[in-house]
C-alpha cells in the first residue's frame, strides 16, 4: 500500500485508542533498518509507524552530507517507494526535535509539506514531534500552538512532550526526578493551549517515569496511573465526548514491565517508541555472523577471504531478519498484530 494518507493515519490512531491497542513506532537510520521495520509490520499483519530522529536523519543523508532535512526527505522518498509493495499502512514520523533544531529540521519539513499539499499533493511525513521537555511548560505550549497551526495546514499530526523523559536520546538529556511524572495540571494546561481536537490533531507524550536507554527489567519505575489522572482531568474539565481525550505516546519503554505497558495502553496510549531494542536486534545477528565467519570476512595470513561472507548483503540480511522479528514481537506485545483492515 502507499504510505498512509492523513485520513488513513488519523483512522489508524483513532482505531487504536478505541480498541485498546498501540502501534510500535520504530526508529530507523538507513535503508536496511527501514526495510526491516516495514517487513516486520507486514509479517505481524499490523499497520505501523516508522520514525527518524534528528541524528538518524543526518545519518540517512550520508557522511558526505550530514544534513537533517536532506536525510529526512531521502528517508521519506525511499519509504514511499518501498511501502507500495506491502499490504499494510505505514506512517512516517520525525522523532524528538528540541528547540535548537526546530529551524533546521521540523520547520523546513513542515514548509516543504505545506508547499506540496498546496499543490494538491500529500505531506512528506504524517506526523512530527516537537520535544519541549527542556523548556518551561508555558514556552513549550506556546511553540506547540504555533506548530499545531502549521501542521494543520500541512495535514500533519503534531506530537508534543509534556514532562521529562529520563536518560538520553540523540543528545537530549532528561534528569531522573519528579519532572518525569506529568501532573493533571500539566494535562489541563495542554488542553487549554491546544484544544481537544478542534485546533488540529495532536498526540501527547505525557511522562510517567519513562527513561530512554538500556535498563534491565524492574529498573524502570513507571506509574501508569499518571496517565489516567491526566485523561480524567481533561475529560471532566472540558466535558469531552471521549473519556480518553488525549492520544497518548509512550517514550522510553525499554526494560518496562509488561503489565505496566498494558495498563498504559488501556489509558489511551496509541504509539510506543521502540528504538534501543530494535537497534540491538539488528546488530546482534551481524555480530554473530562476523564472529562465526571471521576467517571469510577477514583476509587472514595472506589469504583472500570469502567474498560471499564479507558481501554486505550477506550479513545485512541477518541484521534485517533479526530486526523484523523484534518488530513482530513489539506488535504482539502492544496488541496491534493482526489488526490491519
TrEMBL record:
Dihydroxyacetone phosphate binds at residues 213, 252-254, 273-276. Keywords: Glycolysis, Lyase, Metal-binding, Zinc. Pathway: Carbohydrate degradation; glycolysis; D-glyceraldehyde 3-phosphate and glycerone phosphate from D-glucose: step 4/4. Transmembrane segments: none annotated. Zn(2+) 2 binds at residues 131, 161. Binds 2 Zn(2+) ions per subunit. One is catalytic and the other provides a structural contribution. Its cofactor is Zn(2+). Its EC number is 4.1.2.13. The keyword Lyase applies. InterPro entries: Aldolase_TIM, FBA_II, Fruct_bisP_bact. The active site is at 95 (proton donor). Belongs to the class II fructose-bisphosphate aldolase family. NCBIfam families: cbbA, FruBisAldo_II_A, PRK09197.1. This is Fructose-bisphosphate aldolase. It comes from Branchiibius hedensis. The lineage of its organism: Bacteria, Bacillati, Actinomycetota, Actinomycetes, Micrococcales.
Amino acid at each position: 500500500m502507499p504510505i498512509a494518507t492523513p485520513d488513513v493515519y488519523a483512522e489508524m490512531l483513532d482505531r487504536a485508542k478505541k480498541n485498546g491497542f498501540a502501534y510500535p513506532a520504530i526508529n530507523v537510520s538507513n535503508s536496511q533498518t527501514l526495510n526491516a521495520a516495514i517487513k516486520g509490520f507486514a509479517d505481524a499483519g499490523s499497520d505501523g509507524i516508522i520514525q527518524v530522529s534528528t541524528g538518524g536523519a543526518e545519518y540517512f543523508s550520508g557522511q558526505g552530507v550530514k544534513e537533517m532535512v536532506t536525510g529526512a526527505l531521502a528517508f521519506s522518498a525511499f519509504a514511499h517507494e518501498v511501502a507500495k509493495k506491502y499490504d499494510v499502512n505505514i506512517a512516517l514520523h520525525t522523532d524528538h526535535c528540541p528547540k535548537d533544531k526546530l529551524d533546521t529540521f521540523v520547520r523546513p519539513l513542515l514548509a516543504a509539506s505545506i508547499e506540496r499539499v498546496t499543490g494538491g499533493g500529500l505531506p512528506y511525513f504524517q506526523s512530527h514531534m516537537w520535544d519541549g521537555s527542556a523548556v518551561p511548560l508555558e514556552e513549550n505550549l506556546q511553540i506547540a500552538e504555533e506548530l499545531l497551526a502549521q501542521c494543520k495546514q500541512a495535514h500533519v499530526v503534531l506530537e508534543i512532550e509534556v514532562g521529562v523523559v529520563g536518560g538520553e536520546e540523540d543528545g537530549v538529556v532528561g534528569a531522573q526526578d519528579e519532572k518525569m511524572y506529568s501532573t493533571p495540571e500539566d494535562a489541563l494546561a495542554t488542553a487549554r493551549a491546544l484544544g481537544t481536537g478542534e485546533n488540529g490533531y495532536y498526540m501527547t507524550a505525557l511522562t510517567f517515569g519513562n527513561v530512554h536507554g538500556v535498563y534491565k527489567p524492574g529498573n524502570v519505575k513507571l506509574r501508569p496511573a499518571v496517565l489516567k489522572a491526566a485523561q480524567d482531568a481533561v475529560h471532566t474539565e472540558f466535558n469531552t465526548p471521549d473519556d480518553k481525550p488525549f492520544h497518548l505516546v509512550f517514550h522510553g519503554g525499554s526494560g518496562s514491565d509488561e503489565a505496566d505497558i498494558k495498563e498504559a495502553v488501556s489509558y489511551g496510549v496509541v504509539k510506543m517508541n521502540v528504538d534501543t531494542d530494535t537497534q540491538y536486534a539488528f546488530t546482534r545477528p551481524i555480530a554473530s555472523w562476523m564472529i562465526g565467519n571471521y576467517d571469510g570476512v577477514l583476509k587472514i595470513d595472506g589469504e583472500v577471504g570469502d567474498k560471499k561472507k564479507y558481501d554486505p548483503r550477506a550479513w545485512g540480511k541477518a541484521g534485517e531478519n533479526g530486526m523484523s522479528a523484534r518488530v513482530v514481537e513489539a506488535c504482539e506485545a502492544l496488541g496491534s498484530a493482526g489488526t490491519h483492515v
